[in-house]
Design goal:
- The complex is a heterodimer of chains A (about 210) and B (about 260).
- Chain A has about 210 residues and is an alpha+beta fold.
- The longest helix of chain A is centred in the middle third of the chain and has 23 residues.
- Chain A is built from eight helices and five strands; from the N terminus they run H-H-H-H-H-H-E-E-E-E-E-H-H.
- In chain A, about 50% of the residues lie in helices and about 15% in strands.
- Chain A has a single domain, classed as Nuclear Transport Factor 2, Chain: A, CATH 3.10.450.710.
- The two termini of chain A are about 15 Å apart.
- Chain B folds into two domains: about 120 residues, no CATH class; about 60 residues, no CATH class.
- The longest helix of chain B is centred in the first third of the chain and has 28 residues.
- The chains are: A alpha+beta (about 210), B mainly alpha (about 260).
Amino acid sequence: MNIQFKFLILLAGFMVSSMLHAQDIEHDPATLLKQTTNNIFIKLNENMEEFTADPSGLQQLIKTELMPLLDIDYAARLILGRAGRGIEKEKIDSFSQCMSTLLISRYATGLLEFRSTEQLQVLPLRGELNEKLTRVRSRLQLSKGGYAPIDYAFHKTAAGWKAFDVIVEGISYVTTYRNQIMPDVQANGIDSVIARLSSGELELTD
Amino acid sequence: MRTKKPAGLYCLIFLSMLMSACAGTQNRHTDPQNDPWEGFNRKVYAFNNGMDKVVRPVAVAYDTVIPDPVQRGVGNFFRNLEYPVTFVNQVLQGKFKQGAASTGRFLVNSTVGLLGFFDVASRMGIPFYNEDIGQTLATWGYEDSRYLMLPIFGPSTLRDGIGRYADSFYHPVGYYTRKEKTYWPFILRGVDQRARFLSQDAELEQAYDPYVLMRDVWLQNRKYQIHDGDPPLTDYDLYLEDDVAEPDPEPDTPDRQ
């Protein structure tokens, strides 16, 4: 199932979804996805040595370029589901914050593996664009040959289209983590989950 | 994942006997999956983990000793042998065009690709399709099938367990195993496939509930296969609704039994 590449794929997924940032929200997500992938790779290639030596610059790049384009809060709400019921908003926010921090450091590590935009092919939308939800499909060329299909779920917010889920070979991250996080929160409480997420004891991505 | 052996029928009979005596317990804190046999499935999952204590070291040794290109060749070889099962089921599903592509792929890889060790067809741009009786049954309407953890073979559904057994009669590895009464091809394929999943062991171990993680990943990916890579998008609204809907049960109200 190529899941060993899941992390890289997830990384690429969120990376390319950065196209929504500061772009005309009237553009369709697939076109923007392509454009922004290129932009990101250019910046990455320019600063590869610097980033390799000191990943904090890369983390900053991800933070400013990529994170505004993801709707982590929404993903967090979907993941918490009914386990989030009755939990104070501040705690949900800090859960969501933990997810962001983890994603940033993970992407920073994995981004350095990428060398060219050739690896990612964004497929055109297939009439699935509706008012509030759409799916963008892409294919990531794997170094060992073959490709991994990656879909991104976007929804339209007041700030434009934002990605909130990555689906690799049919496996949705939101769905999968939801069934891990929900019972954990129910059993141990949100505080425990947040604490373990921040300490790195609880992994968010593989 | 797609291993077969002649004892499959006895396994199934044995399983169905066990399960009839085994009421499942759904984990009420996860999304309701079609897993009414969860209690039983978890026992089989534990059994498989026990088996893995033996299988994993062999897979690790294989992965360490055998060079990557050879491993790729072995993987290609077994993948090429999926052809008869795929083709029959492409026909059963009316996918004649894809069936022609798969036939071309099989012919090229079996000859130019030296018995399938080299995947020449992929380099020529011939796509790989994967079909089996489980998927055929699903496209014929038996899509929603309960999750079933099979001993040794791992995650499946009732539908796919039946399909796997039926497929084993005309799958080259299953056929060879029956005819020659030798398990070596079966074991080699098992080890090769286990080696492919080594990189995921850590993730599975660290999961809050490894059983649920494996089930969710497998069922989602299976749905993806059934829909030939184009499954319907998850109904995310449902995930949100449920943080407001479904009021807390009030244990002290006596009027609900």
